[in-house]
Automatic annotation (TrEMBL):
GO biological process: protein maturation
Stretches of the chain forming a coiled coil according to its record: none
Name by which UniProt lists this protein: Hydrogenase expression/formation protein HypE
Domain PurM-like C-terminal, residue spans: 152-305
Domain of life: Bacteria
InterPro entries: HypE, PurM-like_C_dom, PurM-like_C_sf, PurM-like_N, PurM-like_N_sf
Gene designation per UniProt: hypE_2
Organism: Clostridium acetireducens DSM 10703
Any Pfam family: AIRS_C
Domain PurM-like N-terminal: 33-137
Family membership: Belongs to the HypE family.
Amino acid sequence: MKNGKLNWNVLKDIIDSNKSVSRDDVRIRSNIGEDCSVVNFGDYECVLSTDPITGAEKSGGSLAVHINCNDIASCGVEPVGILVTILVPEFSKLEDINQIMREISTEAKKLNIEILGGHTEVTSAVNKTIISCTVIGKGKKGEAISTLGSQEEDDIIVTKNLCLEGTYILVNDYLEKVKKFLSKEEITEAKNYISYISVLKEGVIGGKFGVNSMHDITEGGVLGALWEISKGNNLGFKVYKEKMPISQVTKKVCSHFDVDPLRFISSGSMLITTKNGDELIKLLNKEGIKATKIGKIIKEQKGILINNNKEELVSPPQRDELYVFIDKLSN
């Protein structure tokens, strides 16, 4: 098999074929495209999510904290703590582990979350560092929002610019290559994208606003996230390519490396569906968060991308463009 997240159809078959028991105290449970599980504890609910960092060579500790806390944010609640597992290859140095933990500690302090524990191991089972985290959030009973709660005719909104994480990884990990076509100012801008990776603020705002669904845009990019958020609820979507918020630096990076920005890992952008899109955009803008309406949730169970006034059918998400790019370099 090739590197990257399993494609949508394969993953759905595996999940559907391997169901566990269904407990009454689990309100939102495991499902393809669902960011978190939510467990009822009386007056409060525990919100849980887990994700690894595998595609980034640098700043993995920082990214690990944010991509996991972003999943909690997609439920509209705040994270409380994080559990960290670090697996490093035998040729690693102790300073490598210290650097990862410094990054995790720094970002955890920024988000006011506690490092609850974890596991650290040197092992021949990996040839590069793997950082896997589980984040725990807390909310009042019935407060957490399901990723799969979208409704027909919902406005579709994305926050900030797409591809922040993907652009940051390519510029940070392949600096010598990007120096050939990006200016110093553009490289600095791309490296600063890591400062915008968190979607915690917009997640909490969306939760209080009462949106129907939210989804952190990660592997598979905005089209992958749209597929998951709509198909999981037996609906579809219609979005417009020209409305997609993509920075000029990202456009240059994607063009040079032949990367499709709409299928490029995009932590830092929250996908939101709501009946009151314009009102939510005003609220987000007031809080200093850029937000863009890119389309609608539709009844027809298909994904439609409008490109130059022509309809294109969107296929199920495959491997993220980041891994396609990495494969090209190794061949």
